[in-house]
Amino acid sequence: MAIKINNRNIDAPKFQELITKHGCIIKTRLGIHEVDNCAKEGLIILQLCGKDEDIQALGEEINSLDTVKAKWMKLDF
Fold this sequence. Notes:
Number of strands: 4
Low-confidence stretches: none
Strand order of the largest sheet: 2-3-1-4
CATH topology: Alpha-Beta Plaits
CATH superfamily: ACT domain
Largest sheet: 4 strands, antiparallel
Helix content: 25-40%
CATH class: Alpha Beta
Mean pLDDT: 90
Order of helices and strands: EHEEHE
Shape: globular
């Protein structure tokens, strides 16, 4: 799942609550943002494991936040 946060100052605390709530399906989390100016935007990549419905529920909850957009895909190798 790739997540773009457009205003970290506003939605980061709510986003963190959701990540904690769904922590059992998150295997890896990678956060990327500019540190020189402490940018408002950020990109987060999650490696998820679990049932499709649990992953979809997480994505829908994240997308309910005002300045956050999540997209997910399933890679079967």
